[in-house]
Write a structure and sequence with these properties.
The structure is a homodimer.
Chain A: E1 2-4, E2 20-26, E3 29-35, E4 38-43, E5 46-51, H1 57-65, E6 67-73, H2 78-85, H3 94-97, E7 102-103, E8 112-113, E9 116-125, H4 128-134, E10 136-147, E11 151-152, E12 155-156, E13 166-170, E14 173-182
């Protein structure tokens, strides 16, 4: 069951470095792209950083709307993660193309992807120099969600038989998020 | 055996989102801290982004020297990763405190940590607004290294019985980098 994540704990959705899908919408258009290059940037209010190349259609929608969502896919969406990274949303609606179902976000217009394990709704903090020079976007996380079967009380606890988050390498190769272990503090 | 990583493939050391140890040196002082918040930022020349809090001693050394290294620890260094995140190098030499051996970097003064699976030597690109407002540092990767048993031809291939990279969650909890799998492109 999908539930809201306490915003102070939203960084923990990304702290382990999973690959994300960036969804966006503007002027009746929508798109989704894959991004390996994202990270938390602050706790409270939570901020994240993500690289959005200036050649992408996502870049147009994100610049137009000032918003995007980071969707955290599990292994069942790995093929779709590669596929949406290999084509442009200028030419087609990738959601229809790849049969990706969506649901409505709480605080932004971008659609959220069904079948993911976590979601962060983000509003851009305008930093034009970063956008232009580095394709780097900083955004505030305004809402976050996770399935309580996978993430609760600020912790991931991927169980056997559940989807786990994934980490892209290159050329269609991924690592799954692996074994959990603890070190005494 | 440690070998140089082709700089165009250096981003792949970080692409899967491992936790890193940031090592630094300035004016006969050295330090090491843990960082979950880092990511690749560009391919060629390779750049990375990392968050270095302004309250840390590392921040002083990094600002003073303009350099740092990202060391990618395996699970055997997980306890040390938590330990160096729980104290300040202002009060002690953490390398001595925690018995961390080092070796000399190729292009920067910061020491590199023995026992890691990969290393990126970085020179800061000065972006004072990012430093001040977001504790965010962008740097060019000027040299990179990995053990060829773990990383070769631009790919991680963690084998059974070898150290794997790790992904910090919170409170001493980690995930190991998990199962490798491929999606046809």
């Amino acid at each position: 069951m999908r539930e809201a994540v306490d915003l102070k704990k939203a960084y923990r959705l990304l702290n382990h470095g999973p690959t994300v899908l960036v969804s966006s919408a503007h002027n009746q258009k929508r798109n989704v792209m894959a991004a390996s290059w994202s990270m938390p940037l602050d706790f409270d209010p939570p901020k994240i950083a993500v690289v959005i190349d200036k050649n992408t259609y996502t870049r147009e929608l994100v610049d137009g709307s000032g918003e995007f969502a980071l969707n955290i896919p599990g292994r069942a969406l790995a093929a779709a993660t590669v596929a949406v990274g290999d084509c442009s949303g200028r030419d087609q609606d990738k959601f229809e193309q790849f049969g990706l179902a969506t649901f409505v976000a709480g605080k932004i217009a971008a659609p959220l992807l069904e079948g993911c394990v976590g979601w962060l709704e983000c509003k851009i903090i305008s930093e034009p120099r970063n956008h232009q020079l580095y394709d780097l976007y900083i955004a505030e996380v305004v809402a976050a969600w996770a399935d309580v079967a996978d993430f609760s009380n600020g912790r991931w606890h991927f169980a056997a038989g559940r989807e786990r988050s994934i980490h892209y390498v290159a050329g269609g190769a991924f690592f799954e998020t692996g074994e959990a272990f603890n070190v005494d503090e």
